Amino acid sequence: MAAISLTGLTKVYPGDVTALDALDLVVPDGEFFALLGPSGCGKTTLLRTIAGLEAATGGTVAIGERDVTALPRESGTWPWSSRTTRSSRT
């Protein structure tokens, strides 16, 4: 596993709805981590942003030493979204 480091992470949705506001967080390698909070406070947005499913409006996401903030999010980038099927891989 690798550490997760968020620096100034911001996510603003259309209509000026701020879901994440300059969030700084470090989860050290091997540590257990939980997000707790009321509905609508940004937990899912944070997890989706770390996973690369949502683009951050600002700030950085690093996993280990690698900045993953701007990795491609196109279809086919992830193995489970590949258009090839098991039978066509031979």
In short:
Keywords: Cell membrane, Membrane, Translocase. By secondary structure, the chain is α+β, with helices and mostly antiparallel strands.
**Secondary structure tally, helices:** 2
> What is the CA-atom radius of gyration, in angstroms?
15 Å
> How far do the termini sit from each other?
32 Å
Low-confidence stretches: none
CATH top-level class: Alpha Beta
Please state the overall shape, judged from the principal axes of the Cα atoms.
Answer: globular
* Strand arrangement, major sheet: 2-1-3-4
> Got a strand count?
4
Beta-strand percentage range: 25-35%
On the 0 to 100 scale, the average pLDDT is 84
CATH architecture: 3-Layer(aba) Sandwich
- Which fold name corresponds to the CATH topology? Rossmann fold
For CATH, the homologous superfamily is named as P-loop containing nucleotide triphosphate hydrolases
In total, the number of domains comes to 1
Structure classification: alpha+beta
The H/E string reads: EEHEEH
Largest sheet: 4 strands, antiparallel
Helix percentage range = 10-25%
Structural features, described:
This protein has 90 residues and is an alpha+beta fold. The chain has one domain (4-89): Rossmann fold. The chain has two helices and four strands; from the N terminus they run ββαββα. It has a four-stranded antiparallel β-sheet, covered by helices on one side. Strand 1 and strand 2 form a beta hairpin. It starts with a strand and ends with a helix. The mean pLDDT is 84. One of its GO terms (cellular component) is ATP-binding cassette (ABC) transporter complex, substrate-binding subunit-containing. One of its GO terms (molecular function) is ATP binding. InterPro entries: ABC_transporter-like_ATP-bd, ABC_transpr_MalK/UgpC-like, P-loop_NTPase. This is ABC transporter related protein. Pfam families: ABC_tran.
